[in-house]
Design a protein that fits this description.
Length: 376
């Protein structure tokens, strides 16, 4: 298990990276793993070339590229900047390959190592920057390979070898480019799918806590958020006020005007509540039927209650005709029950607070409606 974790951290990186450059996690793993491999491979090559092949210059180059890979890997993990790490590592490898080829002179067909450049350049940097790296590299390499016909490898490097090298590297570059283009297109499509999924989830979340008719919060969200607001208010010693609002004689309204018009009234009341409770820390809910609730907070109980006392007048001021009401003024009115949680309050949980507000609402109805009653 320990070896597995070491290898996972070495080649795929357990470090969490923020995708600020729009680069896929696939590219991150590629860069991290190849840099880690470069460290192991080039240290091994350095040792082999120094003590077995006795090629000191190439051994030094191998050692330098290994150290450069370590530095780039540390830079990647420290800064989380994938683009710069990719650019730096590709530049280092290309410079190394130029120096290696010039020193090696295609001895033992050393030029074969250059076929890895398209893979590293394009997979590290993406198809556009990677292709530019590759074209620059091979434009130099083709020039060197052509001008050294009959010279490299003790004169064994011939024109037909140059042609084979040109065709092979061109095909490899084309295949790698097309592979990366397919990956990038897939990444784009995947990003679109994920964005759409996030939107769907956000819509589902919004629908799950929103009343379908009035577009204000529903009873489910009230049950979820109210205890949290209560706890927050207690910690900050704020006055939290819960009010319950009920439309007066709403059944009479539905019977007289019809349920469709009744729905329009519910929307109008909800809209007015939203306008009324528009501060960030105010919340309004449709609890069910013609019953609404709200939670407001401030530093003083009196401020909350003075503010909520305006509700009945604001709803009455909408001048929504209600010919079936039993009240003298034939407009839509509401009754409101209010309870405030503050220091030394007997209401220590949301259920108790809700019951006290509901009892106050009952008293408002019993005492004539179109009024606000505050719980003691």
């Amino acid at each position: 298990m320990m070896i597995k974790n070491i290898l996972k951290n070495l080649f795929t990186s357990n470090v969490k990276f923020i995708d600020t450059d729009g680069i896929s996690y696939r590219r991150l793993i590629m860069i991290n793993s190849m840099l880690s491999l470069s460290v192991l491979v080039f240290f091994s090559f350095s040792y082999f070339n120094a003590f077995y092949m006795h090629q000191t210059n190439i051994a030094v180059l191998d050692f330098i590229i290994a150290l450069s890979s370590i530095a780039t890997l540390l830079f990647l993990r420290k800064t989380k900047n994938i683009s710069r790490a990719a650019f730096a590592s590709t530049s280092i490898l290309i410079i190394f390959m130029f120096l290696f080829i010039l020193e090696n002179k295609n001895s033992n067909f050393g030029i074969i190592w250059s076929i890895f450049i398209p893979f590293l350049a394009i997979y590290f940097n993406g198809k556009v920057i990677g292709l530019n790296f590759t074209l620059f590299f091979f434009s130099v390499m083709y020039t060197l390979a052509y001008t050294n016909i009959g010279i490299w490898n003790n004169g064994a490097w011939e024109f037909i070898d140059f042609i084979r090298y040109f065709v092979a590297t061109s095909l490899i570059t084309f295949l790698v480019y097309m592979s990366e283009e397919a990956h990038e297109e897939a990444d784009i499509e995947l990003a679109k799918v994920r964005t759409n999924e996030k939107k769907i989830l956000a819509d589902l979340q919004r629908l799950s806590i929103t009343d379908g008719l009035t577009n204000i919060y529903n009873r489910r969200y009230f049950d979820e958020i109210a205890p949290k607001l209560l706890s927050l208010s207690e910690r900050h010693t704020n006055a939290l006020t819960l009010f319950i609002l009920d439309i007066d004689y709403f059944k009479h309204y539905n019977d007289y005007y019809g349920h469709q018009q009744g729905d329009e009234v519910l929307k109008s009341v909800a809209k007015e509540l939203l306008l009324f409770a528009k501060r960030n820390h105010d919340f309004v809910f449709r609890i069910g039927g013609e019953e609404f609730a709200g939670i407001v907070q401030s530093s003083k109980k009196e401020d909350n209650e003075k503010w909520i006392a305006q509700l009945t007048k604001r709803i009455e001021a909408l001048n929504i005709e209600h010919a079936a009401t039993l009240l003298p003024k034939k407009v839509l009115t509401v009754s409101v029950g209010v309870c405030t949680l503050q220091e030394n309050s007997t209401a220590t949980d949301i259920e108790t607070l809700y019951k006290k507000a509901d009892d106050a609402l009952y008293k408002a109805k019993e005492s004539g409606r179109n009024r606000t009653v505050f719980a003691p």
